[in-house]
Amino acid sequence: METTRQKKVSRLLQRELAEIFRIMSGELLPGKMITVTVVRVSADFSIARVYLSIFPSDDMESELSLLRDNVGRVRYGLGTRVSSQLKKIPELSLFADDSLDYIDNIDNLLHD
User: What pTM did the predictor assign?
Assistant: First the structure.
């Protein structure tokens, strides 16, 4: 169960990462919209699991791989934004959030 502090840090990271991905999406994935859906922080605040949704997504794994290759730049940008609020900037682990695909699949099954 997440503590209140973990929830606050998760919300802060989600807000700041959304802005960073908005700025970087033009050069990394032109024509794509990157949404940070959920951020979960470990109990010691050393690791942040970041769930991303990419729209339109032709090949989610290759797009996510490209973002993972640039995670150092993302973490640096995050550090410059939140260094006054956090002692340590967590390591970022990026994951695909497939909840929209799941919802779309359920919707198609119900309407067919």
Answer: 0.87
